[in-house]
């Protein structure tokens, strides 16, 4: 039996390492336990190896949770600007890619090294691979049994992440511990995940594999668990259907059996704005071919595919009836398709659901009924949109917890 720790953090990923580093630097004696051979694997593979480590515009509106207000306090206390300061202090080069998304110029490994350096500054003890066998409350202390011994601590921080990518060691351990202590868990579900489609969904569009088009995509509805969404993002046509950031964003709000809606003209950016009526009602287009008019705003092959679908290819606009113009407009601006399913945990980036936020104090991430038991990062029912928001939640929830240890 060794000394009593101030905190044992279970899970040395983004949230766990960050929390441990902050707490250690506040003078707390912190032990991190992780079952993995290599730590920070999700960070290493994130953002295509460049880690989209935060988003300039991260705000509560970028998160799904049964309680939309839960993230507010933690995000306000540790906004993206604070993490950017830390990254800058370590002289890690970064750039903005798209809609406020910040990526490392070189490698995600720099973020992992920074987290280890922060832990070293706080004299954090990191042990892995270690199997945590059980966690028990013992008066105002906690006992953690592992395959290499027993540890005592004042606080336990559960930071084992979500279920995506089981091949790199994802487990439901935080959710199991929550249930062990009687905390409610919102059913986990894959999110930011590719959707699967059946070939007959697409007509002639699956001949256009490889095409990437900015669209407005909508999914979900007010009555759904996390409501509805509308994103302007890039949509990729593939041999199997649709993919790319637009579909990943929509997947978090999608419910089985429901369609998603795509406005192929909804994300067109023009000085002074773009109104699709200008396209469909413009009499200057009278002598142009239907596919030529569409190709002024859509990739040529896509324009032709839509004209083909309505039998209007080769027809001058003046010859197209009002009814047919309306049907074409409806097809292009409210294209709806029913996904068959998701590609599941193997391909998901994050988990929807997790420890119900009603069970936690939003200022500290501590269990309301079990003082000393904390949950941070992805295991909590807080899921960010694509674009660096999930790491921002890992940092912000880790920071809030560290102040309370
Ligand atoms: P994280 O998964 O980081 O860490 C959990 C830790 O717990 C791991 O070290 C694991 O080994 C350990 N663990 C698990 N079970 C355990 C057990 N039973 N006992 C002990 N230890 C255990 N987000 C973003 O904002 N920008 C991005 O660019 C990306 N890109 C991205 C790409 C891919 C392919 C994926 C899968 C995910 C992303 N994400 C992302 C999401 C992001 O990686 C994720 O939200 C955070 O890593 C969550 O941080 P956590 O610390 O909660 O879990």
Automatic annotation (TrEMBL):
InterPro entries: BaiN-like, BaiN-like_dom_sf, FAD/NAD-bd_sf, RsdA/BaiN/AoA(So)-like_dom, RsdA/BaiN/AoA(So)_Rossmann. Residues 6-403 form the RsdA/BaiN/AoA(So)-like Rossmann fold-like domain. Residues 189-350 form the RsdA/BaiN/AoA(So)-like insert domain. It comes from the Bacteria. SUPFAM superfamilies: FAD/NAD(P)-binding domain, HI0933 insert domain-like. PANTHER family: OS12G0638800 PROTEIN. NCBIfam families: aminoacetone oxidase family FAD-binding enzyme. This is Membrane protein.
